[in-house]
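not sure who needs this but someone in the group chat was asking about Helix-turn-helix transcriptional regulator from Streptomyces luteolifulvus so here u go. i didnt clean anything up, its just raw.
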Amino acid sequence: MARAFDGAALRDARRLAGIPAAQLAAAIGRTEWTVWSYETGRIRPSVDIAAGLADALDLHVEQLLTRTPEKAVA
């Protein structure tokens, strides 16, 4: 199974930590709109940014990933 960034997990973790999107954005050097875009799945963060998000939320990056079934290759 492949792993993909899970925007809902990011949103839930940020809210649970009580961190406003603007504060998280500042911590990773991005805009609040960009954080919102990560949370809604509009865009996916790079591996480095995902690691920064996890670090800012005191999480392991794996906690922001979800397992997705891989497509069969014919």
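also The beta strands are 2-5, 65-68. if thats useful
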